[in-house]
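Recap from last week: sequence in, structure out.
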Amino acid sequence: METPLGGGEFAPAQTYLNTSRCGLLPRRTVAAVTALAEALAAGTAGGSGSFGAVDGARRAFARLVGTGEGRVAVGSSVAVHVGLIANSLPAGAEVLFVEGDFGSLITPFTVRGDLKARFVPLEDLAGAVRPGTALVAFSSVQSADGRVADMAAVREAAAAHGARTLLDATQSAGWLPLDAGAYDYTVTGAFKFLMCPRGVSFLTVTEEAQESLVPIHAGWFAAEDLDDPYGPAVRLAGSARRFDEPPAFLPYHGAEQSLALLEEIGVDAAHAHATALAARFRDGLVRLGHHPVPGDSAVVAVPGLGTRHAELAAAGVVVSARAGNLRAAFHLYNSAADVDRALDVLS
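Predicted structure tokens:
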């Protein structure tokens, strides 16, 4: 597809190719956040916001990633979710990472000081799982260069050695179809391709893996009975809600709307649209004599070209510079004209 998806839901003022950093908010999302903010200013919101909106976002995310809402916990950031998982491991446990993966997936484990962290290149990840590996923690799509992991191979290797899997879907959820139930844990920062306000993040946990997690963030919202917020919870929620970080209502009111739009369009349609535009961009870069990272990702990186991001910005084309790469990311609101505009500036 050469024209944007989503109709009049988006209003980019520039050629915006930077969803890997932050997604654009749909108009309906802005309206929902604005309505709650105005109600809070007027004292008519009946509280700080709606738990119904939080659970609406939870249910929509569960549907988008193919799992049940009872496996989904909400929070504010990937690092918070990862910290919960890191806290659950016994001292001395080995965690296998990808070299150069995003810090929020790694640092909550390494700061403990009593876990064994091992790092390997992305292409060697499945083969590096060994007896004694407790957890394989990796991103579906690498933030720095858009490479897509061989997720099936990693799952197979982890299962063969009894290791658990933690997938960070922050750079893929919203354009790459995901079966969250195939992993012990997934974490997703929702402010990129899910187009939610920042402050929305989702954790999925299988029923088996839930047994090993201690709900260290448990507040009154984690209780099975929400009618009595005083004193210690008599009983925590029987679902993954017991792992919730108490949600911020403004971003979750927006998240419910963003995820509803994505459900209307469909992840398969988003995947076809974004990867077609990315392929057009890669082909154009090659014609200009550049060498983008190969693959079929919606995120395109060009090694050594990161210094040109300021030139593109001055021309109204928004991209990122990451690890020396020029990084462009394509999503619903992009078009073939956006691709050609970026190529024109680079030429």
